Amino acid sequence: MDHKALAHEMRGLREQVTGITDTALAAADGLLIAADTADSIDPEGLAALAAAGLGLARRTSEATARGALHRTVTYGSHGCAAFYAVGDTALMVVLGDEGMDVERLHRATQPALRRIDLILTEKTAEGV
């Protein structure tokens, strides 16, 4: 797996969207793949929580016939956490402060998610 390419994508989002404070990439089972987080954030714990939350959101989307889940966002008093599906096997977490433009984040994230999915898929193809 190309960890440098993953880090490049995560940093690129920070450069495109003002207000992003932390990012993490995890496998669907909650194992951390990569993180760019502050010392106050436990990246392994964040990955596990994000996977659990995204799993519930996926099930809800399917059970209510809303199609494949793309993202879910949680808003708090100090900002938000956006959780994005990366294919069927991974997820990306983006934490932002109160000033983050969430719509801009959604637009900027889509091409990055496609590139991240390709990076992760390359790992699978190499391992076969």
Q: What does this 3D model show about the protein?
A:
This protein has 128 residues and is of the alpha+beta class. The chain is built from three helices and five strands; from the N terminus they run H-E-E-H-E-E-E-H. The chain has helices at residues 3-16, 43-63, 102-127, and strands spanning 20-27, 32-36, 71-76, 79-86, 90-96. A five-stranded antiparallel β-sheet has the order 2-1-5-4-3, with helices on both faces. A hairpin with a 3-residue loop joins strand 4 and strand 5 (90-96). Helix 1 (3-16) packs antiparallel against helix 3 (102-127). The longest helix has 26 residues, at 102-127. The chain is globular. The two termini are 13 Å apart.
Protein structure class: alpha+beta
Proportion in β-strands: 25-35%
What is the approximate shape? globular
User: Order of SSEs, N→C?
Assistant: HEEHEEEH
Distance from first to last alpha carbon: 13 Å
How many DSSP E strands?
Answer: 5
With strands numbered from the N-terminus, the spatial order across the biggest sheet is 2-1-5-4-3
Low-confidence stretches: none
Mean pLDDT: 90
Radius of gyration: 14 Å
Fraction of helical residues: 40-55%
Number of helices: 3
Give the biggest sheet: 5 strands, antiparallel
